Amino acid sequence: MHPDHLAVVLDLSPAHWHRPPLPLDRFLAHILVFLNAHIAARPENTLAVFAALPGRAPLLYPDPDAADQPPPADPNVYPPFRRLDSIVTARIAHELDSLTPDESLLTAPSALVGALTKALCYINRLNLATSQVDPRILVLSVSPDLSTAYIPIMNSIFSAQKLKVTIDACQVFGPDTVFLQQAAHLTGGSYLHLTETSALLQYLIMSFLPPPAIRKVLAVPTQDRIDFRAACFCHKNIVDIGFVCSVCLSIFCQPVPVCSTCRTKFPIKTLQRLNASRPLATPATPSSARPSPAATPAQPSAETPRHRAPLLTGEFAQNGASSQPVTNGSKY
């Protein structure tokens, strides 16, 4: 078995850590124990920690500036643990102190996708240096979904699939995140929404410390329902029913005469037919686990009920050819 490389993304958005059910200092104490357990599991294991802050995603560990600085001496603590704890806590304190008191910045969304992208770049650099590591990413999130991040996070998912990187996601508190559910499912990882934040360390040890190869023989708790809804390219809203361009696969919440991505023009008759065939709005219900329509257009199947279809994949035809929207088994 190859050594395990773990990249951890910590969502440290001040807007959501203002009055959380779990204080930030206790959250970091749980995280440090988990990180120490990872590097203690095998001497060859490697670790990288990124922070998702408003507007930036700095690398917390390893810190190149602290490479030549020995950790404070403590005969009661294992030196690698002491070094990891001191670097991560010092870097987090420095990054939080460097935030300006500007309210617009403090309430801005965290750069979660930026941190995820940096983690993938870091893993790619490791793969170029040596191919004898099994990489995975763990995202610890407290922020809700940001609809404008749909396209970047889907690109990150496709990059992770190509690099064979497993993405695990843990929503510490707050609402479920649709995009992180999809990221974990499409890369073979686990998504977990905590019900008891005080048991964070137990969840981390049982669910995310074992590598994916070992989880196959363990009863790992995970999410049994996955929400595969996508965000439209026109208004950046998460939609239950959408229309997909047959040329570039862009998603729209309503039929449009010209695709805003590839500039393809669609016949007027097709647009009229699609508008006339649009179903009435129905309440959104998450679907069970299956391949994401955002990554693979849905195929008609008479056995799939409409309420389980997260995305209406209606193809726009060119050159006068007509087509009808399809929603996982129902034609309109």
TrEMBL record:
It is found in: Nucleus. Signal peptide: none annotated. Residues 277-303 have a biased composition (Low complexity). Residues 319-332 have a biased composition (Polar residues). Its main location: nucleus. GO terms for cellular component: transcription factor TFIIH core complex; transcription factor TFIIH holo complex. One of its GO terms (biological process) is nucleotide-excision repair. The keyword Electron transport does not apply. One of its GO terms (molecular function) is zinc ion binding. Keywords: DNA damage, DNA repair, Metal-binding, Nucleus, Transcription, Transcription regulation, Zinc, Zinc-finger. Gene3D superfamilies: von Willebrand factor, type A domain. Residues 277-332 are annotated as: Disordered. It holds the Pfam family Tfb4. The keyword Ribosomal protein does not apply. Component of the 7-subunit TFIIH core complex composed of XPB/SSL2, XPD/RAD3, SSL1, TFB1, TFB2, TFB4 and TFB5, which is active in NER. The core complex associates with the 3-subunit CTD-kinase module TFIIK composed of CCL1, KIN28 and TFB3 to form the 10-subunit holoenzyme (holo-TFIIH) active in transcription. Component of the general transcription and DNA repair factor IIH (TFIIH) core complex, which is involved in general and transcription-coupled nucleotide excision repair (NER) of damaged DNA and, when complexed to TFIIK, in RNA transcription by RNA polymerase II. In NER, TFIIH acts by opening DNA around the lesion to allow the excision of the damaged oligonucleotide and its replacement by a new DNA fragment. In transcription, TFIIH has an essential role in transcription initiation. Belongs to the TFB4 family. This is General transcription and DNA repair factor IIH subunit TFB4.
